[in-house]
Each structure stands twice: as structure tokens, then as C-alpha cells.
Amino acid sequence: MDYLLTEQQAMIRDLARKIAQEKIKPVAAQYDESEEFAWPIMKILGESDLFGIYLPEAYGGLGGGIFDMCLVTEELSRACGGIALGFAGSALGALPIALHGSDEQKKKYLPDIAAGRRLAAFCLTEAEAGSDAASIKTTARKEGDKYILNGVKQWITNAGEAEIYTVIALTDKTKGIRGASAFIVEKGTKGMEFGKKEKKMGIRASATREVIFTDCEVPAANLISREGMGFIVALKTLDTSRPGVAAQAVGIAQGALDCALDYSRTRVQFGQPISSFQAVQHMLADMGTQIEAARALTYSVAKLVDSGAKSVSKESAMAKLFASDVAMKVAVDAVQIMGGYGYMRDYPVEKYMRDAKITQIYEGTNQIQRNVIAANMIKETLKK
Amino acid sequence: MNIIVCIKQVPNTTDVRIDPVTNTLIRDGVESVINPFDAYAIEEAVRLKERCGGKVTALTMGPPQAENALKEAIGLGCDEGVLVSDRKFAGSDTWATSYTLACAIEKLEAYDVILCGKQASDGDTAQVGPGISTHLDIPQVTYVKKIAEINDKTAKVERMTEEGYDVVEIPLPCLFTVVKEINTPRMPSLKGMMRAKSAKIAKWTAADLDADPAALGLDGSPTRVVKIFTPEARKGGEMISGTCDEVAKELVELLKGEVV
To answer: How many CB pairs under 8 A join A and B?
Structure first.
């Protein structure tokens, strides 16, 4: 469907598509197998200016918005959801700075992120604080002009590869979530280490590790916003970035459908291509329709975020929920259409199925998204 | 260092069809792209600029829409684009084309290196690059796979051969045609593409060039295309089976009978 993109948006999408199809698709299976981080691809994305599309021009970006970021994430994910996450994960790490950082912090960190010279990562989740993010235990104790961080962040995307980390830690344990603050921590800071690389079901080209802080000294100038704002920074970041997960899901779904559609036209059974059978046609039709609906919702919400709307929690939760459920269903159906071939690792669809699953889980499980959506719906009725 | 890269806009060969009646390319609805070999020349030109400083000018002769190829080249890192376009150039063969391009190059400011792809994917002649250097009376190296050393006076390059490569030292200014082994062309950058969008492409006609009108276009082209045809598909060979001795004997008999 034609979404009436502006000339610049079409240019961004076409460039991302070109890179995805020419550079990522041929190596997706190899990185999935080796679980290495795709630095050569990150370099290409950086040189093509894609890391900066959603960042302000004043800080080396191209001045676009989350919609532009979604266009890129979708196209990259269509080729490989794991490699795409190197890009999207950096955006997640950069957003706290872009949204709440001071001018000095933006000047110091965003140009490198925009150029792809340094990747960013966002550190919120802990072993006992997943869906219940308010249970984080990492602390930041102020000492003079420094904060001393202690704690372990878990399942951090881009960990070890990224150089700029935005970390949520408690500056006042007695205040619960109101005692949380956000910090910028650079890789190489004394007291900061990385745990073992996780072995995952899907998105295996993405680096997922623990980030461990042991009396890690961070300059007070690296506090984002002010003490106590950590949770607001985190929630605002996630509300803003969530359409990105939706876009990743749309891309994965589209990639899976591309494979299934191609296969159905060339696979001959009973003397004809299986695409001539209504049973297969109806599956393809449902997959195509569901993807288009997910894409339309994702784009609409991304545009809402870019419009500066005050609250986007409900809408961005809806986009993430719907698109990720579509991705899972479409990927499963793509495997089904390809039958035994779909189940074999020599063919790419089983990877789309493994990659799709994470989109229902991370950046808030779909159960949590439903909680958010319902809570907002109920709140809206009370206002009337 | 002033670098000129000559490029050609060609039909995308992945979706080219041949008209079975006229035996010519069906160009309708076929996307035009930069000749794939020229993409390596553009990349090498931009790398030379990054290595030695200076400026890269992309030059093409073609119809008005060839401007898009020049804009794409700017998106890939070239600084300027020049389109040489005139109905008077229509029907140019490789001789007239290289003459026209050489005239355009003489109109540009002094240059150090001219880069071309080894050949175009539509004509496959590999003659225009060498033709340009001949018209300009400058030295050339074809099939360059590496520019090993370069300064403002000389260059040392590796010229690919079937069995290996020659190392050639050559004074500047000179012309290189490059093979795909020379580099991996980069992806365009968004900032480059935006610069390209607003870039002004210089457009020159025959009147802008100091050229002999009789040497342009069809009139200036000694080549005559007599006939274009699709060669007949090769028929399957004949398999001879048996022991070595039997096979050898039979083969000799066959050769005696038909060929020798």
C-alpha cells in the first residue's frame, strides 16, 4: 500500500531497503549461525547516515522522527531482525539523551551516535525487574561530584558492543520509582563490566549481555534530567521507541511473507504451483492483510509520536502489541506454507519465526501492553 | 588532485528483454542505472579524493535523463556532475563518444586522473576509456585492479591480466579503466543523496564544446552496424562412451571424417 511518503521518507526507505536486500540478506543466516555482532553492517549503516535520521540536525542527525526510524527498522528487519536490532537498540539507548538530556550531553554524545561511530544501549531490566520494572535494585550513590553505581542490568541489547549506555538506577531507595534516576555511562568506565553473551532462540546477531556495575564512578554531569526523574525518562523513552519494535515486527512479518509467497509460486505439487490452491491463497491473503493493518497502525502511531502528542502510551502499546502478534502468526504460517522446507534451517523462514517471538516479549510483554492499553482506556472514560 | 570519472547510464541488465523481430533492446519500462563497472570507477575516484584530497567530477554523455546518473554519483561522493547532451550526438559509436567526452574533459579544469569502468554492460566494447585517452593524448592503463601508489606526478598501479597482474608505473595526467576487483562500492549516504537532490548539474551541448561538428554523432562514427542477430543456441554435443582406447579410437575416426 502506498503510504504517501514524502520524497525524503521514500529516499530513506529505499536506501534502507537497498542496504537490507544487498548487504544484510546475504549474510543474515551466517550471523544467525555464528551469533556474531554484525559490525560490517553497522559500519555501512553509519556511513549511509541512517543512525542519525531521527536525531536533530543540530546534533549531527537528519532531523527526522520516529516515523523515519520505523521505516529503516522495518526494512532492515525484513532482511534480519537481529541485525536490525543493532540499529534499533542504539536508538533506544540514544532516546533518553535526545528526549531529556542537557544541551551539553546532547552535544557530547549524539553526533557520534548519529554518525554510527559509537552505538548506544539502554539499561533498565534486571533479574528481578522485568515486567515489574519498578523493582530495580541498581543504586547510584552520590559522592561529591560523582555517582557510584552498583548493580547488575540483565539482557541488555548491544551490551559490550555499544559505547554509550543510558542506565536507570535508584538514587533514593526509600522513594521507590520516584527515587530512580537516569545516567549516561561510557564503556570503559572503571567498575563497569559485561557478563557472558546470552544464547538466544532468535535475533542471534544481536548482542545480549549483562552490564555489571561495581562501585562504578560516573561524573555527576552524566545525570540525565535530575534525580528522581529516572522512571519518567525510561517510560517516555519506551513510549517513544515502542513503534520501533512494532516496525521491527512488521519487517519480520513481511520478510517471512516474501519467502512464503515466492516459494508458493515455484513449489509444484499435484502438477501445479501450490499458490494455485485456495488453502494456500487464503493463508497468503490473511498474512498480507494482517501485515498491512499492522503497518498502517505502526505508521499512524509513529506519526502521532512525532506530532509531539502529550501521551502516546496507549497507542504505542497498541502498535507494539498488534504488530508483534501479527509477526508471530505470519511467521508461523510462512513456515506452514513451506512445510518441511520451512522447518529446515537451510531456508530462512524458521529464522523469521524465531526472530518474531522476541517482539511479543521485549520492551514490555504483550500482556503488559494490554494492561497499559486497558488502564488508559479506563482512565479516559473517567475523564469524560 | 582533480579526478574525473566518466560514467554511462545503461538499462538495468537484470530486466532487459530483446525484441525478437528487430533484435534490439526493448528499453520501454526498463529502469536506467549507472553502468555497474562505472560504480567501481566512482568508488575509486572518491577513495582517491579521500586519500589525496581534491575534487571528483562525474561526466556523462547521454540523453537528458542521464542527469539522474550524475546525481546518483554525487550521492556516492562525487562533487560535481557534467552532462553532455545534444541530439547532434545521437548515433555516436565508441570513437565519436570518446571524442565528445575528450572535448568535454578539455573544457573542464586541469585534471590529474580520469577513471572509467572497464566497459559498459550494454555495449560491452571496452573502447570508450582507451578512446578518451587517445583523443586527449595521455597515457592509459586498462583493467586496473589496484592503485598501489599515487602522487601528483606518477602512479603505480596493478593491471589485471588473465594469469595475474602487471605492475605499471605511469606519469600523470593519465586514464585508468578499472575492474570490479579494485574495490567494493559503498552504499549511498542520505546526506550525499540530499546534496545530490539540490546539486546543479552542468549541461553542455555540442555548441559548448570546442569540437569538430563532422566528428560528432552518426556522421563522426566510422562504425556501421550491418546486422544484429541472436546467435543460434549451441546444439548438444555427442557423448562417446567405452574404455579409454575405444573412446580415443572413435574420436580420431570422427575427427578424421568431419573436421580434419
So the answer is: 32
Cell of B16: 532487459
Q: Is A363 known to be catalytic?
A: yes
Contact map slice: A 166-195 vs B, CB within 8 A? none
Which range of residues forms the domain containing residue A215?
121-229
Q: Do B190 and A18 touch (CB under 8 A)?
A: no
pLDDT class for B257, splitting at 50, 70, 90? confident
Interval A105-151: pLDDT, tens: 999 999 999 999 999 999 999 999 999 998 999 999 999 999 999 99
Pairing between β-strand B113-117 and β-strand B2-6 as defined by DSSP bridges = parallel
Query: How far is Cα B145 from Cα B50, in angstroms, rounded to an integer?
Result: 18
- Report the number of distinct structural domains present in chain A: 3
Give the residue on B whose Cα is nearest the Cα of A17. B187
Catalytic residue among A74, A210, A315, A363: A363
Residues A99 and A191 in one domain: no
A345-364 residues touching B, CB cutoff 8 A: none
Give the HSE-up count for residue B241: Cα atoms under 13 Å, Cβ half-sphere: 1
- Report the chain A residue with the minimal C-alpha distance to residue B76: A48
Segment 15-34 of chain A within 8 Å of chain B by CB: 15, 18-19, 22-23
* Phi–psi pair at A165, nearest 5 degrees: -115, 130
Q: CATH code at A201? A: 2.40.110.10
Domain-embedded: residue A1: no
Last residue of a domain, one of A100, A119, A138: A119
Domain assignment of residue A327, yes or no? yes
Q: Which of A213, A201, A206, A202 is nearest to A170 (CA)?
A: A213
Structural domain boundaries of chain B? 2-215
Same domain assignment for residues A146 and A68? no
User: For B2-215, which CATH superfamily applies?
Assistant: HUPs (3.40.50.620)
* pLDDT over 70, % of chain A: 100
Do A256 and A338 meet the contact criterion of CB atoms below 8 Å apart? no
Are A48 and B187 inside 8 Å of each other by CB? yes
ipTM passes above 0.90: no
Domain boundary among the residues A210, A229, A248 is at A229
* Interface membership of A43 toward B (CB under 8 Å): no
B191/A15 Cβ within 8 A: no
CA gyration radius for chain B?
A: 22
Residue type, A224: I
Residue B257 or residue B51, greater confidence = B51
